[in-house]
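Model it.
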Amino acid sequence: MVKVAQQCNLACDHCYVYELQDTSWRHKPGVITEESAVRLAERIAEHARAHALPEVRVVLHRGEPLLAGRQRIEHIVSALRATLQAVSRCDTSLQRNGTLLDPEWLDLFRRYGVSVGVSLDGDRTANDRHRRSRNGRSSYTAVLKGLELLRRPENRALYSGLLCTVDIANDPVAVYEELLSHEPPMIDFLLPHSTWEHPPPGHDTAATPYADWLLAVFERWYTAPVRETGIRRFEHIMELSLSGRLPSAPVVSDFIVVESDLSVELPDNLKAAYDGAAATELNLLDHDFDTVARHPGVVTARGAQPVPLAADCLDCPVVRLCGGGLRTHRYRPRNGFDNPSVFCADLGRLTTHIRDRVVADVRELFGRAS
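Modeled.
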């Protein structure tokens, strides 16, 4: 995940980069330089060659990556293509807020095969609860124009899906149907990045408002007569529930974050925990990706060694489905990450309901077949 531009044209109040605990972005270059982009491509190719990787994935990210400008973005993707073309396939994508997409950007993305994901939290009212411009204006109309361009036949193959941050103040089914109206191939529903020090809105250890919200979407999605879209969170729980190959330790993230100055960081949702939580003190000027891979935080994040879980999680019957939740959501100042997730009750209800629902349906299906 490459942070190509540090700034953003929106001021989303739930953003873990600019609005929560970490301030490191203030000390990074505003955009990645062309020289750094070449060095990045060389480091990726070096690693792919050494390990005979058939494919690498590069996500262009940060505030609003398109603020780096067309020339800079084209330089980055062309450097990646030129350096990796004889080594491995490079799957390049871009996650953005959708407000700056225009035909010229999409022409560029078609030329280089760059897929695009867009963030949207629902209809105008739902989206504007959090995703407003810096002057307070709605971003909704601009996002819809970008999505309309993405859905055109010539661009449809570039459309990777929608990312939605859950807000329990919004009607879940209405949010889902609004997202569905934009014909996404996949939807990611994210829990708001929160910790025990800064709990999510409506948090109550005796209640499950986030599970209730997500389960309303699940039932609407799961009971539809045809598959309308993919929902990554639900499909992951279903797969683990049915596969019989449940991992003993979750993979926290399979992404390494490269900042605009080529410093290397851990999964950047850790920035919601405390200032500097994602730092490694490594950089691609002085260190290769094998060195990065040996960093203790990276070893844990990749699932190469067990992620430390709180004692309460170890004997939980659904820990192998929820993995103890996102590491960031376990943080409490007095004992770090040695806690259950602040969403523990929600994760228990969500995973249990989905597991029981799909297992019962599969048993019934096989019972009828026999």
